[in-house]
Automatic annotation (TrEMBL):
It comes from Colletotrichum kahawae (Coffee berry disease fungus). Residues 219-255 form the DUF8212 domain. PANTHER family: HET DOMAIN-CONTAINING PROTEIN. It comes from the Eukaryota. This is Ankyrin repeat-containing protein. Pfam families: DUF8212, HET. Residues 22-115 form the Heterokaryon incompatibility domain.
Amino acid sequence: MRLIDIETMDIVERFGPSIEPYVILSHTWEDEEVTFQDWDQPSTRNEMKGFQKIRETCELGAADGYRYAWVDTCCIDKTNSTELSEAINSMYKWYEDAAVCYVYLSELRDGAGDEALKEQRWFKRGWTLQELIAPRKVQFFSQNWLRIGEKVAMAKLLSEITSINQDIISMSQDLNDFSVAERMSWASGRETTRPEDLAYCLLGMFGVNMPMLYGEGKKAFLRLQQEIIRTTNDLSIFAWEYVPLVRRTWQDHNNNPCGIFAESPSEFAIRDPLSRSKLKITALKRQTEGDVTVTNAGIKITCRLQLVWTRQKGNYSYVLPVARARGRSATIWSVSFDDDLGVMLKKVDSGLFVRQNPLSLVRMNKRTKRLDVDRYCPNAYILNDLSMWSPLDRYRELRFYWPPGVRVVRCWPWADWDDETGVFMTGRDGPRGSMLIEVKVEDPIDDIPAQIMEFMFVFFGPLDQDYLTYTLVEYGPYQMPLDVINLRLHGRDMSHKEMFHALRRSTIPRQHSAFARIPRTEYGVRLSVQAVETKPPRCEFSMLVDSFDHIPEVDILPWSDTPLHV
C-alpha cells in the first residue's frame, strides 16, 4: 500500500502490520488530477488543480495528529494493470482501516443547506458508496474545506439522500446483517465512468475478489453476481425486477423468458407498486436444500418450488421463493406487511428452467392462492445464457387430457413433468415415468361426503401410438412394487426394458382402465386412458362414476403383446 508521508510529502510503501494509522480522501474526480507519475515532478504537480485537495487532506491529517494520508489519484499506479487490480480488490479494506475519511464536496458552497447537500454529485457516484459505508469515522467538507459534520451524527439525513439503511450509516449494524438484494439496492441509481466499474466498486461490499477485465462491459456485473453466489446461499441475489427500455414494450419483457441474474444494480430498487416506496428486502430464514453451483449456462440448485396462482397467466406457475419484503401498504390505514418474494420460473426441458415475467417479483402471503404441495427439485438448472436453450427443443413431449376432478399429484421423475403446462418431457428414446393421479368425486352420493381415490399411471417406450406401453391401476393394492419402481425412476437408473421386466415380475396388470370403490357406497370410479395419435402424442383420460352393476369390467392385457417383450 502506498501512502503519502505528510511531513516529507514523499510517497512511501507500507505492508501488513507495518502500516501506521492514516487518513483517507473521498472525492469525485475532476480536471488536472495528480497521478502517480506526476508526483515525482513537484514543480508541475503543485500547480495542478487536483493538488489542492491533496494538500488540504494532508494538512487536516496533520492537525488531527496523523503522519500518513492516502489519496486514490496519486497512490495507485494506474498504468500497472496488476497493481490496479490489487488496489480495486483492496479498496474497501483500505477505507475500512483508515483512521478518518475526509469527504470533499467540491460543488457544495459554504453554508449551503440540506437541499444543496442532496444534489451533490458525490452521492451519485459508484465508488463513493463503499467510501461512505466502510470507514468508521467520516467527516464532510464543503468546497472551501469548511467542516459540515460527521457520518454518524448525519446518519438520518444521509439515509434519506442515499436510501441506505440508517443503521449501517450509524454503524449500529454490521454490513453482513443485510441481504444481498438490500446491499445491491444501495448502488441503484449510481454511476461510474466505465461500465465495468459498476461491478468492481461493489467487490468489498460483498467480500469477494475477482480479476479486472476492462473491456468486458456489463459482463463484469454478471461475474460479480456469480462470485457472490459462490460465497453465500442468500437467494435474495435473484430478487430483482427488470427496468425496461423505452424502445421495448412492457408485454415483450413480461412474456419473454430471461436469465436468472440481473443486468445492473438498478434492478434491485424494488418498490411497492402502490406507494412506490422502497421495500426492505431481507433474506429467507431457510434458503436452499443444498449448495448453489454456478455453471457455464446459469446455476444448479436444489430447492423447493411452489405452485402459485398468478393473474398474469391465469394458472399455476412455478415460483422460487428468494427473499422477504417488509414495508407499509399505501392504504389509508398504512398497514405493515411482511411478504415472501419469489421469481416466476418456466420449465423448458427436463429439470431446466428460465425466469419468466422479469418486470415483477411474485408477492406471496397467507392470502396467496397456491397448491397445497410444493415441488422438491433436486439439481435443477436455471439458465442465464438463453442461447443454451431453444423453444424448438420442446418437440419431444407427451401431453395429457384430464377430465374435471382428475389431477396429477406426483410424478416420477418429477424433473420431466411440467405442472404448469401438463406435459411430460422425454428423451430421444421416448418417455419412461409414472404418475400418481388423484380422482375427486365432488358430488355426494347417498349422503356420503366427497371422496378421493388414487390411481397410478406407468408408461414407457417410444413416442408412438403403436409402441408406447402403459398401464393404469389403483394405487393402494400395488403400492409396494410401484414405490420401488418410482424410487428407481426418481434416480433415473431404469431403462425401458428394466421397467417392462419390473412390472411383469411384480404381477402389476397391464390394463388401460382401473376401477376403485367409493368407500361405504355401492358406487365406484372407473378411470380410463387411451393414447391418441397426434403431434406431439397425447394420452386422453376419461372417468365414469356409477353403481357397481353399471360399470364395465376392466380388461387385462398380456404383457407379452408389448413391443419390449423378449
